[in-house]
Amino acid sequence: MHSVGRSWLLLTGFILFYIIYLLFGALVFSSIERPVEDKLREDMIVLKQEFLNLSCVNAASLELFLVKVLKANKYGVSVLRNSSVPSNWDLASSMFFANTLVTTVGYGHTTPLSDTGKAFSIIYALIGVPFTMLVLTACVQRLMYPLVLAPVGLLQRSGIEPRPATVVHFVLLLVLVVLCFFVAPAAVFSTVEVSWSFLDGIYFCFISLCTIGLGDFVPGTHPGQKYRPLYQVTVMVYLFVGLMMMYLLLRTFHKMADLHGLTTFLQLPRCEESDLDEDREPIVENERQSQKEKAANKPLEPGSQPSYNTINKG
Amino acid sequence: MAAPDLLDPKSAAHNSKPRLSFSAKPVVLNTPDYDDECDTRTTVMRWKTVSAIFFLVVLYLIVGATVFRALEQPHESSQKLAILAEKLDFLAMHTCVNSSELEDLVKQVVSAVRAGVNPSGNSSNQSSLWDISSSFFFAGTVITTIGFGNISPHTEGGRIFCIIYALLGIPLFGFLLAGVGDQLGTIFGKGIAKVEKMIVKWKVSQTKIRVFSTLLFILFGCLIFVALPAVIFKHIEGWSTLESIYFVVITLTTIGFGDFVAGEKGGSAGGSESPEYLDYYKPVVWFWILVGLAYFAAVLSMIGDWFRVISKKTKEEVGEFRAHAAEWTANVSAEFKETRRRLSVDIYDKFQRAASIKRKLSSELGINTAINQEMTPGKRTLSANLYEDREAYPNLTLSLSPVTGALSRNGSLYLNGLSPDYADRREFAIIENLK
């Protein structure tokens, strides 16, 4: 199946390019933001020294101090002495930041401080967001067959009617996704992160995977986190795969709704953009068709069939 | 695709209409009606539906806002009291502070800020972060998936409610966005049509018109949804130009960091001066977000389309090459089958001639032969037809290949003389098909 091999190659090329794009963004952010952050850190130390030198504290200077502390804290710079949090803009953290930028999650626990950083974020996001969407949908295309079409076909062959089969499959998929991408990671997070409870973990997973990204919980920002770069990379991968599964769920639901006539009922614009060729398969009917076609067309490529027809008609 | 039909003699016999071409079912995986709808369907949500959904969304937001306020505000006020007490204690100390106490204070301050309370400034003129308009804004950021994060729920009940709220609200907002996008597209399409009518007079090519209209779309949209709001934000919020544009882009792509939020006392201005907001400022901002999101979704999908077109073009070229190769392969195999068929028919003819000569000789010699059923009239017609047709319609040669392919597979049956009635039925089918 030459065409399948070809499209796999294309997909891996895509993913590779996407990873390179993230790395590139991480490097640029790191080089732009790190000097500014260092300077801010030094300013905080100086401020603290000055405060400690005062013999007496009055309200005005306290307010001033607090304002400055808060402003620094908003950018993730802590003034506590024993905070051993490494820079917020080392490579792994910058990549994490780029990932949140490009998947539109946008936690906001670290934000670009310099003007150049902000301008770069704008351009980076404008290019990166559609690109990420493209990659995600391409991956979901590939996943549709083993995760949706094949099981639905299996269910149909075991005797269930088409429509209930899709519903059953959708419910099973939903349960599977909830278990693997919400419950299990929440358990992991609640053990790894010191101050998170299990509910906090589920809350974090949900807020991240819906790309809301409030930013009140961000993994890996606690001072004294062991293996921070590895942890952050793992969380990045989890975010990406989880996002893909959410898209898959959404697409399965959309096709199921098509089958049950919901989209016509709500008069929605039904056509998504066709990403790659195999986008518009209905998940049910195609099973029967494709099996017949596969049996009949063994030696010929599907794409060449029209030309074969022209040969026939002379 | 018709090969299965021909292989199965029953279905071939039942087919009354002559069918030379293969089944008309397209092999590409789109079903025909799906394809038609996607290409020709320009149905768009009616504006009544859109406004109904709009009101539903507003209602949903108001409900969410009241629930959030009920859940969060008590917690917030208790936090406020705690931090005030902390501050008073610190002031009462009054002497040199050592670093540990300082760190304690800072920790308290930081956790207070995380709870959304700003300890600096007087507590009297601070408005709650969870009053009705701010809660409305927060609910909006949740269901649009922007998620600024400058306000976030801190109670367990608030968080659980947030999850459920988002689960229902995000699809709802998705419908609304689709509807708004449709309306926007219609309005813009009409404007573009008018402009195109003017330009057509200048006899410019179609592609140039398309490119021009795309550029116009981008420019116009940027002006209305990006530049104008940026100027307004710069004026009202006191941000720099870059910061305003940054805020607009980060918001409209739903990234939503939260370092700059319109309508909240934030940004690099710090907490020192709080701009006075007019009453309708926040709802206008929310409305702008709604329409701007639709615009940005269109722009981003356009950029995605460009990516796709580029990848599709390469795929098309590859596909064309593959199609040519497959055509060549099909030709070659057809030729091969045709040769086989010819050979088998030749051999059969020679055999029949030999048999008839033998019969003649034997009849002349008076030997009784029982070989009278070897060649039924149908079979004779068949061989004759095939032979004639091949001469008369050379371009049908290739088309006969699947027929002859089937035949050659069963050719051995003829030569063996097995099951004449089966052969008869097949002949009728084949002769039918050859007409």
TrEMBL record, chain A:
Ranges of Polar residues composition bias in the record: 304-314
Ranges of residues in domain Potassium channel: 83-143, 178-256
Pfam families xrefs: Ion_trans_2 (PF07885)
Chain segments carrying region Disordered: 273-314
Biased composition (Basic and acidic residues): 281-296
Coiled-coil parts of chain: none
The UniProt record lists the keyword Transport: yes
Gene, per the UniProt record: kcnk6
MF (Gene Ontology): outward rectifier potassium channel activity; potassium ion leak channel activity
Membrane-protein topology: Multi-pass membrane protein
GO annotations of cellular component type: plasma membrane
Stated family: Belongs to the two pore domain potassium channel (TC 1.A.1.8) family.
Originating species: Dicentrarchus labrax (European seabass)
Stretches that traverse the bilayer: 6-30, 122-145, 165-189, 201-218, 230-250
Name of the protein in its database record: Potassium channel subfamily K member
Keyword terms, alphabetized: Glycoprotein, Ion channel, Ion transport, Membrane, Potassium, Potassium channel, Potassium transport, Transmembrane, Transmembrane helix, Transport
Protein location: Membrane
Residue positions with a glycan: 82
Entries under InterPro entries matching the protein: 2pore_dom_K_chnl (IPR003280), 2pore_dom_K_chnl_TASK (IPR003092), 2pore_dom_K_chnl_TWIK (IPR005408), 2pore_dom_K_chnl_TWIK2 (IPR005409), K_chnl_dom (IPR013099)
Domain of life: Eukaryota
Ribosomal protein in keyword set: no
Gene Ontology BP annotations: stabilization of membrane potential
From TrEMBL, chain B:
Transmembrane segments: 50-71, 129-148, 160-180, 211-233, 245-263, 283-303
The family this protein is said to belong to: Belongs to the two pore domain potassium channel (TC 1.A.1.8) family.
GO molecular function, one term: potassium ion leak channel activity
Main location: membrane
Protein name: Potassium channel domain-containing protein
Cellular component per GO, a single term: plasma membrane
Membrane topology recorded in Swiss-Prot or TrEMBL: Multi-pass membrane protein
Keyword list, A-Z: Cell membrane, Disulfide bond, Ion channel, Ion transport, Membrane, Potassium, Transmembrane, Transmembrane helix, Transport
Domain of life: Eukaryota
